[in-house]
Amino acid sequence: MSFKTADICDLHLHGLQIAEPLFRSFTEVKRFSGQITTVKVFEDNHLIGSILDQPGQGRVLVVDGGGSKRCALIDAELAGLAVSNQWQGILVYGCVRHAEQLQSFPIGLCALNVHPMLAAKHDRGERDILISFAGVNFKKDQYLYADHDGILVAETKLD
């Protein structure tokens, strides 16, 4: 991938949504993009695991975890599942754990912070709905672009 979010902004400013700079990158992949799949959960990662267990086909999973900093929604096991199933990236409005281990994973992963406790598994949540956080409305099948400069969302694929 050779895009730069700064260049995308220069060329396509109208029609882009730009996420507030809240997120940290936790893996070796700092630049990723793909069509969006959404999930909304709160301190429960069962549905996230179910989604990442399916073929990602180059998609990006956007997780609205309500901004909770009381547990981690993604860990090394789920990130490994995402890699195995060819997801391009994961954006988490919440926390991750196993941060040191995640550094070598070949997938984009951005989240608010780290927390040592894993989320519960109660199978609560909603998939492929409109979710909003960081000043952006994320919808299924939009396109997300992320790199060192930030995170953008576009209605269509930008070349």
Please trace the helix and strand order, writing H or E for each element. HEEEHEEHEHEEEEEE
Distance between the termini: 11 Å
Shape: globular
Structural class: alpha/beta
* Number of beta strands: 12
Task: Note the main sheet.
Answer: 10 strands, mixed
Q: What is the helix content?
A: 10-25%
Mean pLDDT: 97
Show unreliable segments: none
CATH class: Alpha Beta
Q: Rounded to an integer, what's the Rg over CA atoms?
A: 14 Å
- Approximate strand percentage: 25-35%
Kindly identify the CATH topology.
Glucose Oxidase, domain 1
CATH architecture designation: 3-Layer(bba) Sandwich
Structural domain tally? 1
Number of helices: 4
CATH 4th-level superfamily: Ribonuclease E inhibitor RraA/RraA-like
Could you describe the 3D structure shown?
The protein is an alpha/beta fold. It has a single domain, classed as 3-Layer(bba) Sandwich (Glucose Oxidase, domain 1). Helix content is 18%, strand content 35%. It has helices at residues 5-12, 46-52, 76-84, 99-102; strands at residues 16-18, 24-25, 32-40, 60-64, 72-74, 89-96, 108-114, 126-127, 131-133, 136-138, 143-147, 150-154. Strands 1, 2, 3, 4, 5, 6, 7, 8, 11 and 12 form a ten-stranded mixed sheet that branches. Strands 9-10 form a two-stranded antiparallel sheet. Helix 3 (76-84) links the parallel strand 5 and strand 6 (89-96). The chain is globular, with a radius of gyration of 14 Å.
